[in-house]
Amino acid sequence: MIGVEQTSIYEPEIIVRAKDLEHLTGIPENVIIEKFGLTEKRVAPDSVHASDLAVLAVRNILKTVDPKSIDVIIYFGSPFKDYQVWTASSKIQHELEATNAYAFELMNVSSCFPIALKVAKDMLVSDQSIQNILLVGGSKESQLINYDNPRSRFMFNFADGGAAALITRNATKSRILDSFIMTDGSFSQDVLVPGGGSVYPVSKEVLDEKMHFLDVPNPMSMKERLDPVSMPNFIKAITKSLEKSGKKLEDIKMLLPLHTKRSMYLELLTALGLTEDQSIYLHQYGHMSALDPCYGLYLAEKENRLNKGDIIVTVSAGTGYTWAATVIEWLKE
């Protein structure tokens, strides 16, 4: 039975509350809490990086799992890592002493956890020599926010953390069913870090103009094009992943989405006929790139909100723009 056997998270120790964000953004605390759905978030110290956060998240899993039994390590976290043109997965493999595992990375920003679940399942189906795959991710995207830039400071919910999931062909807790992924590349230039790549190499101008932070070149244009399709595409990804899994919308017992503004979150629940009790909303964590649904799965189990036979949908969307959903069936009593 191919499924998620264990999950784990790491919460950095620095807490940034809504009141702190009011001072940084000029947005009133009550608006940050009520509209943006953020009471607080976690931020890592300057000395702790995405790869470190991923390693710290895995430690709990390795209390019961021999690192030598891991065959593959897949980094699915933020593409904003310790260094450019560098594999965090290699460092993670070394630090975990998972010497029998090969490591590689999936880079699709915030949409990547449902995609990583699909890739891990497909690998286990196609290669009988693989027994255990470790999905690991880190996010330090709080560092990408330029609070002086009115085009992008709405991304103040970007936060730091680490998450991990052990996928095995001998799972007892859950079974990974099917996935649906869709991309609309017309949004490929709408959210990016303009400086530091080959278009705008590192220079004095890049630093002076703060082009090494996240930016939205034309927020109004993005909003006009994204708003009409965002919710329908979320619904489509969820519906199609359920159909491919032999399930229906009414079968969903738990929805694990990325962190979005509260109005969008509630609209999604309403469209799916779900209550807030049937979902995990990361109001005390913020948005951690691709880690959000993995956090949700960990918290749902920790809070005893999952029962045998429950159908769980992990769903996310990443700038670019890709919407992805993967369905999980819970097996544990």
TrEMBL record:
Which GO terms of type biological process are on file? fatty acid biosynthetic process; secondary metabolite biosynthetic process
Supply the Pfam families for this chain. Answer: ACP_syn_III (PF08545), ACP_syn_III_C (PF08541)
Beta-ketoacyl-[acyl-carrier-protein] synthase III C-terminal domain segment(s): 242-330
State the SUPFAM superfamilies in the record. Answer: Thiolase-like
Give the top-rank taxon of the lineage listed in the UniProt record for this protein.
Bacteria
Q: Which UniProt keywords apply?
A: Acyltransferase, Transferase
**Domain Beta-ketoacyl-[acyl-carrier-protein] synthase III N-terminal span(s) in chain numbering:** 104-185
GO terms for MF: 3-oxoacyl-[acyl-carrier-protein] synthase activity
Q: Which Gene3D superfamilies match?
A: 3.40.47.10
NCBIfam families given in the database record: PRK06840.1
Protein name listed in UniProt: 3-oxoacyl-ACP synthase
Organism whose genome encodes this protein = Ureibacillus manganicus DSM 26584
Taxonomic lineage is:
Bacteria, Bacillati, Bacillota, Bacilli, Bacillales
